[in-house]
Amino acid sequence: MPRKVIIDCDMGIDDAVALCMTLFDSRLDVLAVTATEGCVTADQANNNLQAIVAELDPERYPRLGMAQSTQDAPAVDTRFLFGDDGLGNAGFESTNRQRSLPAEKLIIDAVRANPDQVTILCLGPLTNLARAFRRDPVLPSLIDQIVIMGGSLNGVGNITPCAEFNFYFDPASAQEVLKSRTTKTLIPLDITQQVAFGFEMMDELPGNRTRTGYFLRQILPHTFRAHRQQLGQEGITLNDAVGALAMLEPELFKFQPIGCDVETEGELTRGVLIADRRTQPDLRPNVSVATEVRSTEVKQYIIDQLVTAGHATQD
Ligand code: RIB
Ligand code: CA
């Protein structure tokens, strides 16, 4: 039986690649895709969600859940890497194909309808999941597992010197989710950044006559340019694609149970992942954290997933 999955994401370019990798995988039953604020505003994330699903037009449409603005969100986003619209300024039209539900309501409904069966893949700030847990405190015990892209284990951040974007954007929600009584897997930034793609990646993508290939060619060149101009890097990283792959092929990673928390307030340390790796830790191990990655194989697997999506979207 295919694995039931909800994908919660903030609709930047790497989120979109992760959706290409998962929406056409016959091992998955994607029950819902939910938008959250982060890479772009809540409104833009909702537009992007509808546009991505319409562009890819999967055979089985997932239900779509809409983002709402995050309280006390910091004035940061990822437009410097992903463009003003979060999708390489591709100018996609959004379509209102479905009656829209708030993301957290959809998460609650989908988990309650499939108790102990749902994996939630979180590729953005953890706002929706924390809201769902506040609304329905029993929910954590009904989830099979949560796979999260977020945090930095080695203390090197990407939005501040020491914080990773998803945790920095909404640290209180990240803390609540990490402390919840569910099975959690964390794919931190220092793992996702070990998988780098050069521009030759474009030659390996499905052709332009497939909806996936056409879509990826509209969004990816922008981020190659931005990585060069903004970060001085020739290649790109696709953090959420690696997060999605950790859900699909965990044997390509090594994991350690670690006691984890998140700094919610520090002047310089907001959103920092606190991982107690001392021999006598105070924090009880609550998260399975990826500590090693077989990067060459992961990179190839990500391309293979996209090629499969290409086959499924030939017009
Ligand atoms: O830090 C990387 C993460 O922040 C990715 O999920 C990216 O899409 C942004 O949400
Ligand atoms: Ca993301």
What characteristics describe this protein?
alpha/beta; binds calcium ion; two-stranded antiparallel ribbon; ten-stranded mixed sheet; globular; binds alpha-D-ribofuranose
Description:
The chain is α/β, with parallel strands linked by helices and 315 residues long. It has one domain (3-312): Inosine-uridine Nucleoside N-ribohydrolase, Chain A. Helix content is 38%, strand content 19%. It has helices at 13-23, 42-56, 79-82, 103-113, 127-135, 165-169, 171-179, 189-192, 201-204, 211-231, 239-248, 295-312; strands spanning 3-9, 28-35, 63-66, 101-102, 118-122, 145-149, 184-187, 196-197, 236-237, 253-262, 273-276, 287-293. The strands form two sheets. A ten-stranded mixed beta sheet has the order 4-3-2-1-5-6-7-12-10-11, sandwiched between helices. Strands 8-9 form a two-stranded antiparallel sheet. The longest helix is centred in the C-terminal third of the chain and has 21 residues, at 211-231. The chain is globular. The two termini are 28 Å apart. The mean pLDDT is 96. The protein binds alpha-D-ribofuranose and calcium ion.
